[in-house]
Amino acid sequence: MPPEVMRQLCAHLDTFEAMTCHEIRLSVELLMDTGRRPEEICRLDLNCLTRDSQGKPVLLYDNWKEQRLRRQLPIHEPTAKLIIDQQRGVRERFPDPPPSQLVLLPGQVLNLRGDRSIDSNHLSAMHREWVESLPDFVLDDGTVFDKEKIFPYAYRHSFAQRHADAGVPIDVLAELMDHDNYQTTKTYFRVKEVRLREAVERVTNMQFDRHGTRIWGAITTVLDAERTRRAVGAVVVPFGTCSEPSNVAAGGGACPLRFRCVGCDHFSTDVSYLPDLRSYLDDLLRQRERLRSMSEAEDWARAEAMPSEAEITRIRRLIQRVTEDVETLTEAERAEINRAAQVVRQTRQNFLGMPRIRQPLPDLRPERPA
Ligand code: SF4
Fold first, then answer.
1. How far apart (Å, rounded) are the C-alpha atoms in residues 126 and 19?
2. Fewer CB within 10 Å: N-end or C-end of the chain?
């Protein structure tokens, strides 16, 4: 579903609750936020929220379709808060049974023990009624979006598309979707994105930390939830990505180091940023020469404006390490990575602009506080 449609749906969530019950409305919010299948959301346990080793929220759910139980999905804090509030409400409504026997979204009728969940067919029916009651969904180009295409399972496709558009690697996206096979995951986003996705995969295979050490290929043993979070918990900054939590939460606008990324452990980059690194280095060198020959400024002002030797050295070293790594590839691999980097750069320039900061990845509902 296009972002404009999602925005309009989110804006009308309160009217949905007025038509039905809180649990049905909440199930739709969770579908939007997590991309799980309707059955997986409807049947969540009361104890479906945990925290990873960094204290970040993780949803525990059962993949009924594949019969894989206790799956983990990293989620945003606002989504975790929805769950925590609901857990409190369920405990008040059913104070006697132990929490392990309760469900997160208990149905309204014939449910004295709180162990019967809302029904996904009922959810679909109520959702259809709600969508039909809403005004037309007018897209940015003035056309009207077909309401028939708005149904609970479509939120799963939107979730996949949103991550694919943001450049989340296919292996991570497959994990987020809990697919065994990348081919299945690829059917969840638009075909025209596939070329870009493949390019993104290639360049992220050549990712480096600030010292120029390759990192992505080595991430094979971290916990699923941590690995996927690593891919989604980042914002684009000049020359690479930043994973500093407060900066990510602020959409890249709250860097405590004033974007001295090459001196920061939260920074990583990939081959597609090589031209940006080179032109930044050229800028620094030019700026240094200009300041040296400038006589109409006081010493302290010139000293403060002067690019630091340490930064220049670091950037030189980073460029050298990345370039050396690319040179270890065969000619055919090099040509492929260059083509991929070009595609990724083109997209970045078209959609993001350089070196502006991109919004944080995948929160569908940016109007909510982080
Ligand atoms: S210096 Fe760069 S990587 Fe470090 S917190 Fe700031 S923006 Fe993020």
1. 8
2. C
Q: Ligand 1, closest atom to CA 266?
A: 3
Query: Which protein residues are within 6 Å of ligand 1, measured from CB?
Result: 237, 242, 244, 247, 255, 257, 259-261, 264, 266-267
- Reduced to 3 states (helix: H, G, I; strand: E, B; else coil), residue 196 is helix
Calpha distance 16→20 (Å, rounded): 6
Distance CA(324)–CA(313), nearest Å, equals: 16
Mean pLDDT of 133-142: 90
Q: Ligand 1, closest atom to CA 241?
A: 3
Q: Which domains does the chain have, with CATH numbers?
A: 3-152 (1.10.443), 193-352 (no CATH)
pLDDT in tens, 270-287: 888 888 889 889 999 999
What is the CA(264)–ligand 1 centre distance, in A? Answer: 6
pTM of the model: 0.57
